[in-house]
């Protein structure tokens, strides 16, 4: 079979009526920016890109040099094409407007420019996550409130993993597809069409160091997985935790499994660890389109009505049967309390 490039795939999606020309251009621009981020990350110590930037972001987290560089690359690439009304990033408190003098488009782009950035300095996979929304009609200077749309309204979502290979995973709501960067040619090439995540899992991803802070239903659920063959689940489970959500999700998209970042006593006040607009929602869209499930432990992530650009939520995602079971334990515990 002849290789299918990302550009060819986007043209096919336009012909199928799944996307318009502006959204196609937006994805091309984001993919091009991610190729530049891949080059920057791959230089490591030789590029002078490792270490702290000496600044903090809106979440009060220390920024790495590559957080700042990746954010700049995405902002600069998306400023002038005429495909965006505005964009928002993990690294900026407020939405970024399109600079004066450039045309504006109908789309809103949200991104985490470099997810897992605490892994950069130890040469472990990191990534970019993005989500695309439609700008509400008649809005010419989009503010945070115009981005606060539930995940079900996303027009597109994707992530790029900067690992041994650079891989882009993308959905427009018509399946989840994977592209691998051909570094010599400089093109993303379709490597898996219509990815399906197995309904059952034997691998789970969770930060076990938080166990003592978890709520009782999470203690129960993970306790049963850990009990293995001789426990109530009657089978052994393996554990993996990269601590770059992109890499953990990519493992699930490749061979199944589940990922949990539940609410715990340590992070209860902030509502969770991961950000809904540019982490949980795009990943939920990708996972659901691959036949998996994504919840907050109580409800479908994509049905949460966001109230803040940098709002956090608990995240349960991956193989459907496991996510449903963990969610059921939480709902049952709350039902019993009520
Ligand atoms: P950083 O980008 O600050 O490294 O955070 C990564 C992340 O948001 C997500 O990618 C990981 O799944 C999660 O945090 C890791 O959290 P722990 O620090 O609890 O392992």
Topology, please?
Blueprint: H1 6-15, H2 21-43, E1 52-56, E2 62-64, H3 65-79, E3 84-89, E4 96-97, E5 107-115, E6 126-134, H4 144-147, E7 156-162, E8 166-171, E9 176-182, E10 187-192, E11 203-205, H5 216-227, E12 238-239, H6 245-255, E13 258-261, E14 274-275, H7 276-289, E15 293-295, E16 312-313, E17 315-318, H8 320-337
1,6-di-O-phosphono-alpha-D-fructofuranose binds at residues 61, 115-118, 207, 243-245, 274.
Domain Fructose-1-6-bisphosphatase class 1 C-terminal: 197-329
Pathway: Carbohydrate biosynthesis
EC number: 3.1.3.11
Structure characterization notes:
The chain is of the alpha+beta class. The protein has two domains: 6-192, 2-Layer Sandwich (Fructose-1,6-Bisphosphatase, Chain A, domain 1), CATH 3.30.540.10; 203-337, D-Maltodextrin-Binding Protein, domain 2, CATH 3.40.190. 32% of the residues lie in helices and 24% in strands. The protein has helices at 6-15, 21-43, 65-79, 144-147, 216-227, 245-255, 276-289, 320-337; strands spanning 52-56, 62-64, 84-89, 96-97, 107-115, 126-134, 156-162, 166-171, 176-182, 187-192, 203-205, 238-239, 258-261, 274-275, 293-295, 312-313, 315-318. Helix 5 (216-227) links the parallel strand 11 (203-205) and strand 12. Helix 2 (21-43) packs antiparallel against helix 3 (65-79). It is globular, with a radius of gyration of 20 Å. 1,6-di-O-phosphono-alpha-D-fructofuranose binds at residues 61, 115-118, 207, 243-245, 274. Residues 61, 115-118, 207, 243-245, 274 line the site of 1,6-di-O-phosphono-alpha-D-fructofuranose. Its cofactor is Mg(2+). Residues 197-329 form the Fructose-1-6-bisphosphatase class 1 C-terminal domain.
């Amino acid at each position: 079979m002849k290789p299918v490039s990302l550009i060819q795939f986007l043209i096919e999606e336009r012909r199928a009526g799944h996307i318009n020309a502006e959204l196609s251009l937006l994805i091309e621009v984001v993919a091009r920016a991610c190729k530049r981020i891949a080059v920057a990350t791959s230089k490591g110590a030789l590029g002078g890109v490792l270490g702290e930037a000496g600044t903090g972001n809106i979440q009060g987290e220390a920024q790495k040099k590559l957080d700042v560089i990746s954010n700049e690359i995405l902002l600069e690439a998306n400023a002038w094409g005429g495909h965006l009304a505005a964009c928002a990033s993990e690294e900026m408190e407020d939405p970024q407007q399109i600079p004066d003098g450039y045309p504006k488009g109908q789309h809103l782009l949200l991104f985490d420019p470099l997810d897992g950035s605490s892994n950069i300095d130890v040469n472990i996979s990191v990534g970019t996550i993005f989500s695309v929304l439609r700008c509400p009609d008649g809005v010419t200077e989009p503010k945070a409130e115009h981005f606060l749309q539930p995940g079900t309204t996303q027009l597109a979502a994707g992530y790029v993993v900067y690992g041994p290979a650079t891989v882009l995973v993308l959905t427009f709501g018509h399946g989840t597809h994977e592209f691998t960067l051909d570094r010599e040619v400089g093109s993303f090439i379709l490597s898996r069409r219509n990815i399906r995540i197995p309904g059952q899992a034997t691998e789970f991803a969770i930060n076990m160091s938080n166990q003592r802070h978890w709520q009782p239903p999470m203690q129960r659920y993970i306790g049963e997985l850990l009990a293995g063959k001789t426990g109530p689940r009657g089978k052994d489970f393996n554990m993996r935790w990269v601590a770059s959500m992109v890499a953990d999700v990519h493992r699930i998209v490749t061979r199944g499994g589940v990922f949990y970042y539940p609410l715990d006593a340590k992070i209860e006040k902030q509502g969770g660890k991961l950000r809904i607009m540019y982490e949980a929602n795009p990943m939920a869209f990708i996972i659901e389109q691959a036949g998996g499930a994504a919840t907050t432990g109580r409800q479908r992530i994509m049905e949460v009505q966001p109230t803040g650009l940098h709002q956090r939520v608990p995240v349960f995602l991956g193989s459907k049967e496991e996510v449903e079971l963990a969610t059921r334990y939480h709902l049952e515990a709350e039902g019993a309390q009520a």
